[in-house]
Design brief:
By secondary structure, chain A is mainly alpha-helical. Chain A has 15 helices and no strands. In chain B, α11 runs antiparallel to α14 and α14 packs antiparallel against α17. The chains are: A mainly alpha (about 280), B mainly alpha (about 350). Chains A and B meet through α1, α4, α5, α6 and α8 of A and α4, α6, α7, α8 and α9 of B.
């Protein structure tokens, strides 16, 4: 009797999970479906999930007529350097906070934590004025340079996460390296950085997602079509009357794909990052 | 008395380390002033040569301290510079601009409290605030309750549960403009899948984003796709910490699923519920991309949310002073919620090792 109960319970659970799963995944599948459908089928009177026939026309059009490749190139450029900048600068600062004794460290650490509460919207106007003054508008510099100074939106959080990781590395390793005559910089590059790899992975993945999808910052600073990143480029497509949903979804798919691939490749980083925030790390 | 106790415990900790390491010189450097005697004593008995080495290192120490300070500042320099240039400076500037009239082309003109006065009398601002509060009031409870339910469903040890976890998490990482465009297409009044489905059932769907009544609720629905993300994982971690014995006891008493949920699960994860409410509130106050891309604030300013209003004032109308004042009001609202969150997280979220 009890076993039967468990089986029905499990069946109900599976049905619930499957229904919710379908609801969650269907928007993404709909993007894929629309991107490969013919126009006739898209605007037909019936819902068809599987395109028949499958067409690559929209992608060809996006790459030949709409310069999607330029947006992709820009996005890769900006994201790549933003992630590099974030990883280097945040790990350096985290090392200083975790290992070195310097005057005012604890005060600065509280300041660092406090900056997590400052919304980007407060600083964006003066920053625009500043970058406008020094002629950085319509360049990638306002998107990339702040990342090299741990000044991104999430900089403080990354520093905090990395600091916690560094603190879990045994100090004896530093001391041993010191006996061997290593300076602070060598300890950072030869001891801390290699051991920090998992945490750096977390930071890199988080910051990739953030900068790949970032919309507001490039929207503020980039005016020229040739400079647009993918999110701004997508918005630009939308504003053009003659573009169809098929092409729009094709472009969206191109923008979504790296996120999805990285998510599947680096699933553990997402979970671990959360563990850290939740206090299990 | 208390001091002694404190030092006592630290001393034992450090001598423990000493026993393990047997590296007197390093312990000496790391030990607080008052403890040096103790350590030297424990050192003295069995290792005289090391003690000599310590004394020899005494002069080098101050130089080392200076070196470490220099190294510390050099390593922290990216953040120190970044903080000054990209955070502190702009905050001060923003506060100053909020009292001025400034259109970027000419220099700012001091206007005192005029911007703030105008905001309070600005009907559109109150509408914007109302929109934002409406969005928050509906999306936050739905998101928190939804993610809790998802977490409860996912907290079962059955085959393939990890696949479901992945599927539920996925939409929360694929944010941004692409998702916004997806919603635009999904809820298209003509050829969108929702209205097509409704038409097949013989019903005429609403205009969704283009309808004054439906635009905001549709925005709320779109925000719910992300409930399987971080918030759900926080709940999942909390659920896994609930002792199984509580449920077993309830089972013996013949409690129903709902009773167990209401009287065991909810109270046990209540700290995380509060935390998630705060995270969601701050998140919903910052809604921008969906509003900008899908509706641009319309129809009839029905989806004009606070951040979008700040953006439009600053970069469309070039009213930098007015936008700065708006940003400060926004900052204060978010700051209050952040403080509550910080206070709560101090109690429930782990920060220090």
């Amino acid at each position: 009797m009890k076993r039967k109960n468990i089986i029905t319970k499990k069946t109900i659970l599976y049905i619930c999970l499957t229904i919710i799963g379908i609801i969650f995944i269907s928007p993404l599948l709909w993007v894929v479906s629309t991107a490969f459908k013919t126009v006739e089928q898209t605007y037909g009177s019936e819902i068809t999930w599987i395109p028949n026939p499958i067409t690559f026309k929209h992608f060809i059009k996006l790459f030949t007529e709409y310069h999607l490749s330029i947006f992709i190139k820009n996005s890769i450029f900006v994201t790549f350097f933003s992630v590099i900048g974030t990883v280097i600068s945040c790990s350096m600062v985290a090392y200083a906070f975790a290992r070195l004794n310097w005057f005012g460290k604890n005060t600065f650490f509280i300041v660092l934590l406090a900056t997590m509460m400052i919304p980007q919207q407060v600083t964006m106007i003066p920053l625009f004025i500043l970058f406008n003054k020094i002629g950085w508008i319509n360049t990638f510099k306002p998107l990339i340079v702040p990342q090299f100074f741990a000044g991104g939106v999430e900089g403080a959080l990354y520093i905090f996460i990395l600091r916690q990781f560094i603190r879990s590395i045994p100090r004896e390793l530093d001391e041993a390296a010191k006996i061997d005559g290593c300076g602070y910089f060598k300890i950072y590059t030869h001891i801390i950085m290699p051991l920090l790899k998992p945490a750096l992975g977390t930071i890199a993945v988080f910051s990739f997602m953030l900068h790949w999808n970032d919309f507001m910052t490039p929207l503020i600073y980039l005016n020229d079509e040739s400079k647009f990143t993918l999110p701004v480029g997508l918005q630009y497509f939308r504003l053009q009357d003659f573009i169809l949903y098929n092409e729009l979804m094709g472009a969206s798919l191109v923008a979504l794909l790296p996120c999805i691939i990285i998510f599947f490749m680096c699933q553990k980083y997402f979970i671990r990052g959360i563990d850290l925030k939740a206090g299990k790390g | 008395m208390q001091r002694e106790k404190k030092f006592g415990s630290r001393a034992s900790k450090i001598t423990d380390e000493f026993l393990i390491l047997n590296e007197g010189a390093f312990l000496y450097r790391r030990a607080p002033n008052n403890l040096r005697g103790i350590i030297l004593m424990s050192n003295n008995n069995n290792n005289k040569s090391k003690l000599k080495k310590l004394k020899f290192n005494g002069k080098v120490r101050s130089k080392k301290l200076i070196n470490e300070n220099i190294a510390g500042y050099l390593f922290a320099a990216p953040w120190l510079i970044g903080f000054t240039v990209f955070i502190l400076g702009p905050i001060i500037a923003s506060f100053y601009f909020s009292f001025t009239k400034y259109d970027v082309l000419s220099s700012p003109v001091w206007k005192g409290l005029e911007n703030y006065n105008t905001i309070l009398l600005d009907e559109l601002f109150w509408k914007v605030l109302g929109n934002t509060l409406f969005y928050t009031a509906f999306s936050v409870p739905l998101a928190v309750f939804g993610s809790l339910l998802l977490a409860v469903l996912l907290n079962n040890k059955i085959k393939g549960i990890n696949i479901f976890r992945t599927i539920f998490y996925l939409p929360s990482v694929t944010g941004g403009v692409a998702m916004a465009l997806l919603w635009l297409w999904f809820f298209d009044p003509g050829a969108g899948i929702i209205n097509m489905g409704l038409r097949m059932l013989g019903k005429q769907g609403p205009l969704w984003f283009q309808s004054e009544i439906w635009a905001k609720p549709t925005m709320v629905i779109c925000s719910l796709i992300a409930i399987g993300g971080d918030r759900c994982l926080l709940f999942l971690a909390a659920l896994q910490g609930i002792p199984q014995s509580l449920y077993e006891a309830a089972d013996i008493d013949g409690a129903s699923w709902w009773t167990k949920f209401r009287y065991i699960t909810v109270p046990m994860v209540s700290p995380i519920i509060f935390l998630n409410i705060m995270i969601s509130i701050i998140k919903s106050f910052r809604v921008f991309t969906n509003a900008y891309v899908i509706t641009g604030g319309g129809p009839l300013n029905g989806t004009l949310f606070l951040v979008l209003y700040i953006y439009k004032n600053a970069f469309t109308f070039l009213k930098m002073g007015y936008a700065s004042a708006l940003a400060w009001i926004f900052f204060i609202i978010v700051f209050v919620f952040s403080l509550i969150q910080l206070w709560l997280s101090k109690k429930w979220v782990y920060y220090e090792t």
